[in-house]
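Supplementary notes (optional reading)

For those who missed the lab, this is the record we used. Protein: Sugar ABC transporter substrate-binding protein. Length: 370 residues.
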Amino acid sequence: MSTFIRDYIEREKINRRNFLLASAAGLTATAVPGLFGQGQARAALTDPAIAWSFRDKASAYWNAIYGGGEAFVESIGKPKEFLVALINEGSSEKSLADIKAFLAKNNGNCAIACDANDSPNARPVVEAVQQAGAYISTIWNKTDDLHPWDFGDNYVSHMTWSDEKPAEETARILFDAMGGKGGVVHVGGIPANNPAIERLQGLKNALADYPDITLLDAQPADWDTTKGAELMASFLTRYGDEIKGVHCANDNMAYGVLEALKAEGITDMPVVAYDGNPEAVQLIMDGQLLATVFTNPHWGGGITAALAYNAAIGKFKPSEEPHEHREFYGPTVMVTAKDAADFKAKYLDATPTYDWNDYWGPSNGPIQYK
């Protein structure tokens, strides 16, 4: 196996250590009170500052998200450094504090793209942006009762991915590789994350058609490689040979799972993942992963920034758009051994060129609530 997994784990440890040291020293961003606006969208902002608020740069997925944002910024004639990275390191408290500080620093003259880290954090983030008179587009995490159209133009849009069906498809690929019988474990994301919930539900949906497959356990590893390795090691201690397959809610955790399996001398355990990161695609080509699901983070990162910025400068008025343009699904592509090489050539070895004014072209329709 490539050494990139071990290197990846070490980078995560260093990033976490640096964040904790900064927090202890009081260096994390805090809001400056009294500088916000009156909670009304301005007719149009002039040269607004742009930020992307996301989890970390150790992940290929989030690097691709941010890279899409940089591509959009360059498309409007600005250097990519104009895009500010607000990295929350998996902390919802830091996510909110950093956004409030960014709003205060720029007196609300802002356009923000954001993953709120967990669903409950989305509302205070959006409320802070509206109060400042700024604009925000979000991805992945929000509660079902939070809608952009309830915030006028300030909350421009929300995009998520319909993870349940793709996760069900990866589960079926996994179960077939297991011969339709045996025990499976699920390595999950942050419990309050919408994608973590949907990806586990997709696994459970597939189980209904495989009566000889038993779900032995499903526990969170918080999207983290190191935690994924630790959880898999604990699963092996508890269940041993009963485990015949592993369903991972993202690629990063799958890397840790593979390391834990390798440490026990297990090299033939079928494992599926999610996100379509370059390393995961290579592992599929090398025969170490069965499948992953690509959500086109480059496009998602760029179009989310484009929506927030172009609404802020008055290029379009969100409140005049239909609901399906304000809450919508992003695209997904299943990647397996039979198509991994073609996928890599199209999406990873080269970056497709996107029209950042085509806000909804590759999207997959309005969000459906159950």
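If you only remember one thing from this example: Residues 164-294 form a domain with the Rossmann fold fold (CATH 3.40.50.2300).
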